[in-house]
Amino acid sequence: MKTAAKIAGAILVFLLLALVVLRITGLNPIGDTPGPRNYPGLWLSGQLVTTPVTDWSFATKYRTDKVQTRTWYLIPHSVTTGFIVHNGQLYLTSMFRAGMPFPQGKMWVSDVMRDPHVRLKFGDKLYDCILSPVTDPSERAAVLGSRVIGNPQPTVSNATSGPMMHLFHAVSQ
After folding, report:
1. pTM score, two decimals?
2. pLDDT confidence bin for 56, thresholds 50/70/90
């Protein structure tokens, strides 16, 4: 019994040390294209920007962003996502294939629906934001309008009949 307790204690200490190291160094998601061939990460690393962002136009020079969410089990989850900048406002995108339940189909979306506080990464800069799902059809149409012209991706309104792109408006804190 004492040997089992020592082994369990050693494993616990190792796991705690590993989490401390990962917290210090960060563990960014791997990949620059949302979806397959990407691997999620934990904490994002970089320089935190503390002034609120009012115009996200600078983000257009990046292909994707990284988003870190707050999980229910208290260890951050980060992924690579797509985004759209419309009139200086930032919108994160998430494609749900037909039949994929919203928000449960994607862990980061489930996390955001439970707790909208996120950390975004563009380049080596980090931004604390609040995400809110876009539910207004006119706002959705305006944001997706330029994307459909330049990159015709499915934007149907009913995920049961085809893929559905969900939008999340980011507001800097």
Report:
1. 0.82
2. very high
